[in-house]
Design goal:
- By secondary structure, the protein is mainly alpha-helical.
- The chain has two domains: 2-163, no CATH class; 182-236, no CATH class.
- The chain is 76% helix and 0% strand.
- It is built from 13 helices and no strands.
- The chain is globular, with a radius of gyration of 19 Å.
- The protein starts with a helix and ends with a helix.
Amino acid sequence: MTGYKIAFKKAFPYTIPVLTGYLFIGIAFGVMYAEKGYSAWWAVLMSLLVYAGSGQYLAVNFFVPGISFAQVIFMTLMVNIRHVFYGLSLLDKFNKMGKKRWYMIFGLTDETYSLLCTTKVPEGVEEDKFLFAIALMDQSYWIIGSAIGGILKSVLPFNAEGIEFAMTALFVVIFVEQWMDAKNRVPAVIGVVCAVLCLQIFGSGSFVFPTMILSILVLFATRKRLEKEREVEVCQ
């Protein structure tokens, strides 16, 4: 347990940006869920067992007449298909984590993925425990936010129109933060260009999956050049 205690202590500062973001978007989800007539406990349970970020926002609209099970599966897959690509890049790390890898796969969100890929493990901390701490704390922030939002909406009725934009706002903040910290911004530019292109071709309802495919193909084609530029930056 001492190893985990140190891991959580060292990992916490890195998760503070996610803490501030997840509390608010978790609150937004809890409010949206409560508007459908469900108690705060259902919002908490969904954040505990589903934990799909934007997928949960989308799921709020599933609790209406006329939505088939097939539609639920397809829409959820389209929204969260990017997690497949996230997981592929972390296979080596997760395979070394033993039984914890199952939770790491389950808890892989956009923000957690960003931290797992960019955060350097501090000295004196075991990598598997450090990464596990990041993932578990991130989910706990989301669960707490969901509970707060559900309770607030239950005891303080208010107009929550537009609150779903909180998720989009968080993605924008994370992108801007990584843009400012990154020395090589070519991958980000590639992602933006691919997204805009696919948005024009496929429309706002189905451009995510084509964007991921196109981005990967372009990045793979330019991988050697990007790796050379990275080596030059490290030497400097």
